[in-house]
Amino acid sequence: MITLRRSSRRPILLICITLTLLLLWHSGLPPSVRRQPKPIPNTQGVLYRRSSFDWANLRRQYPRDKLLRLPKGDPITFPRVQHNPSQSSSPATAVEVIQSRRNAVLNAFRRSWASYQKHAWTWDELMPVSGQGKNPFGGFAASIVDSLDTLWIMGLRREFDEAVQAVALIDWDKTTMTSINMFETTIRHLGGLLSAYDLSSEPVLLAKATELGDMLYAGFDTENGMPPFWFKFSAAKYGHQVGGDRDSSASGCSMSMEFTRLSQITGDPKYYDATERVKQFLRATQQDTLIPGMWPAFLNYRKMLATDTRFTIGGQADSLYEYLPKMHALLGGRDPQYAKMAEEALDTVSKNLIFRPLVPDNADILFIGDANAHKTRAHEHVPEMQHLSCFAGGMYALASRLLNRPDYMSIADKITRGCVWSYKAFPTGLMAEISSHVSCAQLTTPPNTDLQAACEWSEEAWKLHTFGRGSLDTMPMGFRSVRNPQYLLRPEAIESVFYMWRITGAEEWRDAAWDMFQAIVNATETKLAYSAIRTVIVPKGGETEKTDSMESFWFSETLKYFYLIFSDDDVLSLDEWFRAFTTIRALHRSHDGAGAQDHYATLKVAPNASPSEIKKSFYALSKAHHPDHNPNDPTATTKFHAISDAYATLGTPAKRASSPTPPRSFYALSKAHHPDHNPNDPTATTKFHAISEAYATLGTPAKRAVYDRDHARHSHHAHGGAQPRGSYHSAGGRPASGLSRRRSAFRGPPPSFYRSGGWGAQSEKRQAAHDDSTGGTGATPHGTRPPPPPPGAGRPSEAGMGPGQDPYGHRREAQVPHFDREGHTRTQSAQDSRRRTRMEGQGVMPSGSGDSAVGLFFAISGILFLTFFLPYVFFGGLTQGRRKKKDVEKLRSKTA
After folding, report:
1. For the domain 102-588, what is the CATH code?
2. Where on the phi/psi map is residue 706: left (φ > 0), alpha (ψ -120 to 50), or beta?
3. Residue 357: helix, strand or coil by DSSP?
4. How far is CA 700 from the centre of its chain?
5. Which helix (H) or strand (E) element contains residue 214?
6. Rounded distance, CA 662 to CA 674, Å?
7. What residues make up the catalytic site (predicted)?
8. Which of 406-412's residues contact partners 24+ apart within 8 Å by CB, and which partners?
9. How many other C-beta atoms are found inside a 10 Å radius of the C-beta of residue 5?
């Protein structure tokens, strides 16, 4: 029985040893073999939580043989978009009035944000009447993520930091929903993260954006690469998703801005590739629809068809058209297809959808309707106006500059005026969600084919077309009916007002914006914040019915536009930053290199200032230039934002380390060659862009390191037969990557060699002694070494060397010998080995190769064998010996 019991334990012991060995074997494998999670970003004190599912390593069911990459080449030169302040009309309102209006907008935001923090923090939305939270977008804190850039722009740094911390803890795989809307998640979450990252450079925002981008990218893993409307988590993980056979055109075709920007920032082309394939589908079908030049509201993504009959730029289609001119700018004009698609689409919309309504004051305004297309007869125009369609005013205004189409500006002006007119038409001062009108083209028989033809007001004609469709007592004149009377806190109208203000500089747009803001506050205010209302048709002075809804675009768009309208023009200038969707996302234009800020000069501190000196200067300057303390200074807001941005960079050690100190030459040259200062110089724009691009590269440490490496490599190999030069040549011999952990081949003596005098005036004797001690390894491969030049011939007589010199008198175009190459290479290799060992110990880099892992396996196996087997044998032997002794004694006792 003893033997049986002992043997029954052996399999258990062997299993335990085997499992332990396998565990240690797995942990000993290099990361190239063992799957490793992405490194945690440098979050600067922010508690960061990586999402529980790693979408980046998900195996695609339909892998791409070749990824489409971002277009290369020189960007085109865009004309100025924003108005020149010196050419704008005289201010109609005093500076203090503008500041008070901006403060009113800021207070409305603060009030809404405080209630959201108190009652619905990390929920998608606050219900502003009941004070509860709700999660219509997966519970990924939509209001927080969507509002990040607004918090930054408004200077609410404490609230911004709190929001960043909340975002850092989001787990994109933890949701109570089985599916989410891909379009909404992209524009609210991915767009919000990228916009805020472009503004603040917070690493955790890029980390979360990349996590989300990887997840959404899985939605494009379909047979033809077209995305579905709903992102289903379980189906996406197994590659079982398919494109819809009748999904809205906006949902699948309005993710290009966010995905392209993510590729630009991360350098990973897969995101751009995903939406570029959708763009190619759009381009292929643009002229093959029932209204050539446009796309129907619904597309068959599964079969890649565009055969539906309803056409609109309102709901279901709006952002598809909006993204076209913006993508043209985001790519720097490098993809000419976007400009062609935008122009063809906007011309078609102008001809087939935009109409002039019959209004009582004969106002020169335009609305945008829909069209029902037919194969065999004329298309049916539907004179309905949606609040969503008001974005078109800003779209046409922006396109007039980006596409060099001045005629678009007139359309933009009239559409925007039409939306402002609709706000004023109702007693609440708010525009309805969807309203129907009488088109001037309908008043003729047959109907006029020119939808924008003017007509005189006729009350009889209005009543004739309105009779039976609504109450004439409550319906404002000029409206045929109101199909959806809600007001949802939407931003589209104020968005177009913002663009018209920034592009034209006409003060009337600021006045219109203020009237709209007052009407919104009066009609939507609740005890906690502001709510959508059920109908705008309320007797003047009557109470509106709140629907207990406040979507995230109230923070991220509506209030942001109001704030920017009453801010200085250089706060998020249209010529330096670019906008995605309708949220004026701060996505930096890819061709912009100018505009870098000298943070040290802004805070009036030296580059070597201590953290306490920087902090002290920040407090003093921010107090001195705060807009509230300088109501009569129109530049106070700009200065205050610059000071805040400077401290946000210099107050963080990691950001300060990567913050360049702009050279004076950049400011001098950019000012001297600025196109505005040289109107008669046709080359000024080219020079200015070249200067800007040069500083964009040399002013960023990482970009400069790459440039220096590439430049050094090209210049070294420019002359045939020349070997790589070392540090003999100052200012370029040792590349900027000399301090990088990615060590390059040894290229010459260290800087200490020159600090101690180098070869000096006695270069001949020292070099001869060097040759004697090294066996002549310094000799040139071409034979004899030329004698050093005399002190006056391009080389100073004192110790050391000047630019472009070496101890043997060689020039850059000559061959440069090496000194004791073998010895120094051995030393360098030993240093690299020690450095690698330290990095492995700190977990910075993979440890060893597959061979070292095998050796580690046998070493650990031997240790475990000795650890388990020897005690087992030793103690087992003792026990067995004692038992045998007892058995012998028993046997003897029985025998006796």
Report:
1. 1.50.10.10
2. alpha
3. strand
4. 18
5. helix 203-217
6. 17
7. 184, 318, 433, 492
8. 408/346, 409/503, 411/350, 411/354, 411/366, 412/496, 412/499, 412/500
9. 8
| CATH class label, 607-662 | mainly alpha
- Based on the number of CB atoms within 10 Å of its own CB, is 612 exposed (0-12), middle (13-18) or buried (19 or more)? exposed
* Helix, strand, coil percentages in the chain from 3-state DSSP, rounded to 5: 50, 5, 45
DSSP 442-498: GGSSSPPS-TT------HHHHHHHHTTTS-TTTSPTT-SEEEE--B----HHHHHHH
Buried b (16+ CB within 10 A) or exposed e, 668-682: ebbeebebeeeeeee
Tell me which residues are annotated as active site.
184, 318, 433, 492
Which amino acid type is present at position 196? A
Can you give the pLDDT at residue 877?
A: 58
Tokens coding 528: 């906690």
In 3-state terms, what secondary structure has residue 439? Answer: strand
362 and 423 Cβ atoms separated by less than 8 Å: no
Cα-to-chain-centroid distance, residue 313: 26
In eight-state DSSP terms, residue 381 is E
- The terminus-to-terminus CA distance of the chain in angstroms comes to 26
H-run or E-run covering 247: strand 247-248
* Residues 469-495: tens digit of each pLDDT: 556 667 899 999 999 999 999 999 999
How far is residue 432's CA from residue 425's CA, in Å, rounded to a whole number?
Answer: 10
Burial of residue 667 (number of CB atoms within 10 Å: 0-12, 13-18, 19+): middle
According to DSSP, the β-strands at 179-181 and 132-134 are unpaired
The two tokens of residue 23 are: 């565990």
| pLDDT per position as a tens digit, 105-148 | 999 999 999 999 999 999 999 999 999 999 999 999 999 999 99
Alpha carbon distances (Å) from 425 to 96, 478, 530, 720, 807: 30, 9, 22, 78, 85
Q: Which tokens go with 171? A: 């787990």
Question: Residue 185, SS3?
Answer: helix
Q: Which CA distances in Å does 348 have to 290, 342, 411, 431, 845?
A: 12, 10, 13, 26, 57
Strand order in the sheet with 481-484: 384-386, 434-436, 481-484
- Residue for token pair 């950049």: 666
Helix (H) / strand (E) element for 386: namely strand 384-386
Tokens of 162: 């709190």
- Diameter of the chain measured on Cα atoms: 138
Which pTM was predicted? Answer: 0.66
Which DSSP category does 353 fall into? T
Tokens standing for residue 338: 């976007």
Spacing of C-alpha 437 from chain mean position: 40
Contact indicator for 584, 557 with CB cutoff of 8 Å: yes
> In a 10 Å sphere around its CB, with 0-12 CB exposed, 13-18 middle and 19+ buried, how is residue 776 labelled?
exposed
Q: What is the distance between the alpha carbons of residues 164 and 147, in angstroms, rounded to a whole number? A: 11
Nearest-angstrom CA–CA distance, 545 and 548:
9
Check residue 834 and give left, alpha or beta (phi > 0: left; psi -120 to 50: alpha).
alpha
180-205 pLDDT, tens digit each: 999 999 999 999 999 999 999 999 99
Residue 734 identity: R
* Per-position DSSP letters for 695-728, written without gaps between them: HHHHTSHHHHHHHHHHHHHHHHTTSTTPPPP-TT
Q: Place 838 in a pLDDT band, splitting at 50, 70 and 90.
A: low
Q: Which two tokens stand for residue 253?
A: 């075709």
SS3 state of residue 90: coil
Structure tokens at 519: 């009407």
Three-state DSSP class for 823?
helix
* Pure H helices in 33-177: 95-120, 142-153, 157-168
DSSP at 840: H
180 bridge partner residues: 231
Helix (H, G, I), strand (E, B) or coil at 874: helix
pLDDT one-digit tens code per residue, 290-302: 999 999 999 999 9
Measured distance CA(333)–CA(159) in Å, rounded? 37
